[in-house]
Amino acid sequence: MSKKNDDNRYSNWIQNCWHHFCLRPKENSSEYSHSTTIDNNHKNTRFVSQAGKEIVTRESNFDGLLHDPVEENITSILHVNENFISSKDYTELMRITSPFHITVETLAHLMTTMEKHCQMGLEPNTKSSSDLKMLPTYVTNLPTRKEQGDILALDLGGTNFRTLLVKLHPNNEPQVISEAHIVPDSKKLLANDLFEFIVDVLKQFMIRNQLDLEQEYVLGFTFSFACEQIALNKGKFLTPSKGWVLSDLIGQDVVQVLQRIIYQKQLKVKITALINDTVGTLMACAYHENTCRVGVILGTGTNACYFEDINKIHTISDRAVLPTEATEMIINTEWGALGEGGCLDMLITNFDREIDRISNNPGIHIFEKLISGMYMGRLAAEVLASLINQGIILKTQRDHKQSYRYYGPFHALYMLQTSHISEIELDTGHTISNNPGIHIFEKLISGMYMGRLAAEVLASLINQGIILKTQRDHKQSYRYYGPFHALYMLQTSHISEIELDTGHTFANTRNVLKKLGLDYATNTDCAIISYTCRLISRRAAMLTAAAIAVLMKRLHENKQVAMKKICIGIDGSLYRFHPRFNMVIQRHLKILAPVLLNYELRISADGSGIGAAICAITANDARQALRKGEIQKSSFYQQHNRIP
């Protein structure tokens, strides 16, 4: 079947499901009830709040856009009148933000593309052409809740590094002792420095918790970067992400490198499981709900894993290491990489391209840059900067028309003045002006522009890695927003706070702007900023729902699983703390997921720690059972004078 026909198939499916969903009551909704008022042409349906106030009137003729009556309530405050937004500004706002509206064609294309790359990633002949690595994890069994023991775990991810002691007792809740540690930027460059730091922290953790250093312990290592595994305790590091470098680890066995340093530090700790954070999330969730078959991370970065029919995985390097009874295996999709080959270009906006360009890994992890928490705040800042440049928002704070750029962590360079240059002198690009093409000689020699010109040159030196190396967390191109350089500080956590606004006072939006030093925003400014943040958040959640639906479809077609209901374990700061992300995902999964498959989304508490511990003790038990079997087998042969 051709790609176009595949897209059309998904489009028709989504369109039919959307009609069905929009024209029926939403079960147990506390946000709105569904009331229909049908005109003579049977076109209109009204969504009415419980207070009786109409939220939105929708034509049931499908227009290609996936409208959401609850999510779009924000547009009701963008009145085109003298008190709010002018007709001209409204038109320009819609033009700038329209690329973030998701159409049926967009979701259909994403789902078709992801399904294709999933299949390609499982075949040795097409694996290299797939954006999705579809990595076998060698995890083939779910927890039994009979696991027992004290297990150490390490969790190394995007923001924090954690040491954990997990106490497992049959049919009881795990007891977890956990400590979080910040990894210095200087330790994110070379693996040897990083792992020495980690092992030193682990040793102190064991001492603080009074663990006998003469006793042997097993350890599960959650390593939230792409690895190609050839066994549960062997994995070759592929690519860094999230601003890390680790150039000396690429192509190396992560477990072997860390284990060597553990032994050098004279710790009796054996790494028995190397897992990804998504696998840990799935396993921790499965410890409480044995129908869990999908694990998703939505935080600083994003990724997902799921159970695949083992007969469909043709990239397993050594099937001899698998249990003979294994029928399925967890696959680490590394879905953040989708789009690296250009397959998602149709849904990427110019703002997304700019975020990619100024990132530390341009052209890499495209899907991750569309939906993850690391980039959402920066993306919103880019869009808001465009609205500033068009004179749509923050007009009262703008001293003159100017194009805004930022220098990333070095936005303070914007404050460099000619007086500073004079002071520096005692110690023996282009200019972004409000009048381009005018007063050229003045710009070459006058005090008004000298400081800004120096800032441009210094930014170039930063980008080349010549100055301020110790303060740079990773390579990045730097720009500033002029008087609004504080917009660079807009974080995804700020977007979550803005999304808490429900009325027309925008208390949370104002609070965020004050934190950024923007104290004089009008009600219209707040409305537009809130609308923009919500639009970006909703797009991310809708794309996430579509990606999850593809994995659910594969499970539904998996004859080895043959389940009518599955649980999806999710963890990550974006999912946990964004007030609307879960709601949008749930709403769109009702449309996109296989019709006959019931599902539940569940937060997987401390998946990276508990999941790693479960995998570690399971692997150790299996190893001991195998060793016991070999001893018994050897005794049998010796007893009967036979050579095995």
UniProtKB/TrEMBL annotation:
GO molecular function, one term: D-glucose binding
Enzyme Commission number(s): 2.7.1.-
Domain Hexokinase C-terminal: 293-428, 433-617
Membrane spanning stretches: none
Ranges where the Hexokinase N-terminal domain occurs: 93-287
Keyword terms: ATP-binding, Glycolysis, Kinase, Nucleotide-binding, Transferase
GO cellular component, as recorded: cytosol; mitochondrion
GO BP term (any one): glycolytic process
Pathway(s) where this gene product acts: Carbohydrate degradation; glycolysis; D-glyceraldehyde 3-phosphate and glycerone phosphate from D-glucose: step 1/4; Carbohydrate metabolism; hexose metabolism
Catalytic activity annotation: D-glucose + ATP = D-glucose 6-phosphate + ADP + H(+); a D-hexose + ATP = a D-hexose 6-phosphate + ADP + H(+); D-fructose + ATP = D-fructose 6-phosphate + ADP + H(+)
Keyword Ribosomal protein tagged: no
InterPro entries with a match to the protein in the record: ATPase_NBD (IPR043129), Hexokinase (IPR001312), Hexokinase_C (IPR022673), Hexokinase_N (IPR022672)
Keyword Isomerase belongs to the record: no
Family recorded in the similarity comment: Belongs to the hexokinase family.
PANTHER family, per the entry: HEXOKINASE (PTHR19443), HEXOKINASE TYPE 1-RELATED (PTHR19443:SF16)
The protein's name: Phosphotransferase
